């Protein structure tokens, strides 16, 4: 257990590499800065032993027969995507102005517009896939500002920068936990929109197949959608082209049945996306640990 001074020093040390890259590239154009951080993170995942082994452990659960060379191409692509995503979240206010880089499609957008017209709230579900903040950017530009559920970071430097970036994408930003859940319910009942990333391990959740493997999954989004008669729309911001363009796709709202069936429908939706473009999903989540 670290003492308080030692913990503070360790947080500085862990943040230093990212701070260095951001500082070194700060006078370059937005796209160049994004690609620079993406390149660094991609190289770390590919060549830094602990990161590579963690990626391998999770990735081979789903793709056990993929040759190592191909796995490492995916590893580097995943790292590049996550580095760019992190940079764009840190600079979310500017990212939100770059809508000329976005293409938008899918019938789920109409379902959200109908909910807004009726004065109802809505739940947008996604995962750590592509650039999920692109979804909120599109909605905010269309007058549907969307808050988000956020898991606080243990490192105070990451916490400060990430929270500021996420807040720039739309309000309110609600922490996980009891207080955040109560605020989330009030927001939805008042006609607010909220985005939830449903691909993180939830220890109290149900074991549902995700990429063909049972994973602890929260039913909260579906339960709220059913209780308050709200649309639950899967949406994805897919990184495209040169890595600085995005295809934002709103899938049809998930039919209201029961919370297990609805949550499984989302798991199947995201799984299909990942199987098609595995480099766009963040494999470091330890999604199946202890399941």
Automatic annotation (TrEMBL):
* Predominant place of localization: membrane
- GO terms for cellular component: plasma membrane
Q: Does Signal count among this protein's keywords?
A: no
Which InterPro entries does the annotation name?
LipA_acyltrans
Q: Which UniProt keywords apply?
A: Acyltransferase, Cell inner membrane, Cell membrane, Membrane, Transferase
Localization (cell) = Cell inner membrane
Membrane-spanning ranges: none
- Note whether Cell membrane occurs among the keywords: yes
Q: Name one Pfam family in it.
A: Lip_A_acyltrans
- List the GO molecular function terms: acyltransferase activity
Task: List, in alphabetical order, the GO biological process terms annotated in this UniProt record.
Answer: glycolipid biosynthetic process
Identify the domain of life. Answer: Bacteria
Matching CDD domains, A to Z? Answer: LPLAT_LABLAT-like
**This protein's name:** Lysophospholipid acyltransferase family protein
